[in-house]
Design a protein that fits this description.
heterodimer, A: about 140 residues, alpha+beta, five-stranded antiparallel β-sheet, B: about 375 residues, alpha/beta, five-stranded parallel β-sheet, 16 helices, 10 strands, about 15% strand, globular
């Protein structure tokens, strides 16, 4: 079992690809067959799998998330900011963990699939964890 | 709280840093929750108002607050704010104005009046006071209650510094909610402010030792003139007020530049002690250096409090200098530089055996229980 921590600085709200970092964590674990869990310890960020081919597609995802949960000033949560309050809702909808399959010592992903850290309250200093376990 | 020492004002100054640090988290939370998000988004400008120390605190915090909030901030006396400004704003301008009315006791008549007049015009009024049941708190839309512990009874220093910190925190909050600054930047600013307050105690202790001699230097001069620029202009005004309150010493403050237009021409330079309050990082250092040369040629008794090129110039000319550490930039400098001025007033009063506020006796009897500022007819606009 391995657990690795990864840092990233987000510049603004949006999707940040972390596929390479997760692949390296899997390779570094030496595990042939097992499971990989990616986890974000934040409440205004989330994880998703999406196509990496066209960055505009990622913008579409965020644009529509923003349409679902606009940053507005009537959230009951006022301890932080309107963007933060919206970020909490988006984080819940998107989720903060991703279970993935390790097969043949590699991450099993479709040919278009990338792993993305979704920032909903940026810019922030962020991190995520990757845990790999044998079958 | 009564002070056991012979110098309660000094005791109050030295008690302020731990009180500020201890009360910071409560004040931060109060500032965070003082205004709702829709209220903050409804505001287009901020008017700060208060009298005496509250006015100086507002002036001292004005620029720091504006920088953090990303919004125009102006300071008005309550007379000006209530009877004049509130009456000439359009209804729309008034509705988009946040008035922050400061009074430690919450009983300053003119400040209560200004709060009421602005509320009548539709402005959002936030009271900053230590008294939740006060007239000001009940007149304002909302209140931010300062967690000021009992302090030695003396002309105020602790409440003045609490008010400055509260205003900076409200500024950070407004800037954060309006996304002028990010949450991380806002939180870092709060952390820096708390750390800065935690480091004030040694600066104040160092200033205490140096101000005893400075006080004896000015005690023999009939007039004390205090100069400052930017936030330190408020420091100068605060310092003059403390000399008046604590020692009854004739004192006044002047903006550094305005001095060259006006007080330069005073015909009795030998009667005047001039104190220049200037932060090491002050944008006014170059002008202060010029003014110090004029002061020297006039034969004035000069003291520079702060640091930087102006302090170096004063030293080279043979004048008194009190370099004080613990600064965190010009915009927060009033929290550092006000202490030595309060201490000078404390030591001048102690050496003269002066009763604070003339003991509210004889011709000053009207001021007993703050009657001269709390009992005053309220003005009502003609309908």
């Amino acid at each position: 079992v391995t657990l690795t921590n990864h840092k990233l600085s987000t510049r603004a709200n949006g999707a940040y690809e972390i596929t390479a970092a997760v692949r390296e964590a899997v390779a570094g674990s030496g595990i042939g067959e097992g499971l990989c869990l990616v986890f974000v310890p934040h409440t205004t960020a989330g994880l998703s799998i999406s196509s990496f081919w066209d960055p505009k597609g990622l913008e579409d995802v965020h644009d529509d998330i923003d349409r679902l949960v606009p940053t507005r000033i009537d959230f009951k949560h006022e301890f932080d900011t309107p963007q933060d309050a919206a970020g909490h809702v988006k984080s819940v909808l998107v989720g903060v963990s991703l279970p993935l399959i390790i097969s043949g010592g590699k991450l099993l992903l479709g040919h278009s699939q990338g792993i993305f850290f979704n920032e909903f309250d940026g810019p922030r200093e962020r991190q995520f964890f990757v845990k790999c376990t044998h079958d | 709280m009564m002070s056991p020492s012979a110098n309660p004002m000094r005791d109050q100054v030295l008690a302020a840093p731990p009180a500020l640090h201890d009360g910071f988290d409560e004040m931060e939370r109060a500032a965070r929750l003082a205004l709702s998000t829709p209220e903050i988004y409804g505001v287009r400008r901020v008017v700060l108002t208060g009298s005496g120390d509250s006015f100086f605190a507002a002036k001292a915090a004005e620029l720091a607050m504006a920088a953090e909030a990303g919004m125009p901030v102006e300071v008005r006396t309550p007379m000006e704010a209530g009877r004049y400004v509130s009456q000439v704003l359009t209804a729309d301008e008034a509705r988009r104005t946040l008035v922050i009315a400061l009074s430690n006791s919450g009983g300053a008549a003119r400040t209560v009046e200004a709060a009421g007049l602005f509320r009548e015009r539709g402005a959002l009024v936030l009271a900053i006071t230590k008294a939740p049941e006060s007239r000001l708190a009940s007149t304002a839309t909302k209140s931010l209650i300062l967690p000021i512990p009992p302090l030695p009874s003396a002309p105020g220093f602790g409440p003045y510094t609490f008010a400055i910190v509260a205003l900076i925190l409200v500024g950070i909050r407004i800037g954060e909610v309006r996304m002028h600054i990010t949450m991380d930047i806002a939180q870092a600013a709060r952390g820096r402010l708390k750390q800065f307050l935690g480091g004030l105690a040694p600066s104040y202790a160092e200033a205490d030792a140096g101000t005893v001699e400075l006080a004896s230097g000015i005690a023999g001069r009939p007039i004390v003139e205090l100069l400052g620029a930017g936030p330190d202009c408020a420091v100068a005004e605060y310092g003059a007020a403390k000399l008046l309150e604590a020692a009854g010493h004739h004192a006044y403050a002047r903006d550094l530049e305005e001095w060259a237009h006006l007080n330069y021409f005073d015909a009795r330079p030998e009667d005047i002690s001039t104190i220049v309050a200037i932060a090491p990082e002050s944008r006014a250092q170059s002008r202060a250096t010029e003014v110090l040369r004029y002061l020297d040629r006039l034969g004035r008794h000069v003291i520079v409090i702060g640091g930087g090129a102006a302090a170096d110039t004063a030293l080279s000319l043979g004048h008194d200098v009190l370099v004080i550490g613990g600064n965190a930039g010009e915009l927060w400098s009033p929290l550092v530089l006000s202490a030595p001025l309060a201490l000078i007033a404390a030591h001048v009063a102690a050496a003269a055996g002066a009763e604070y506020g003339r003991g509210s006796k004889g011709p000053w009897a009207d001021s007993a229980d703050a009657s001269t500022v709390q009992n005053s007819a309220t003005w009502e606009p003609r309908r």
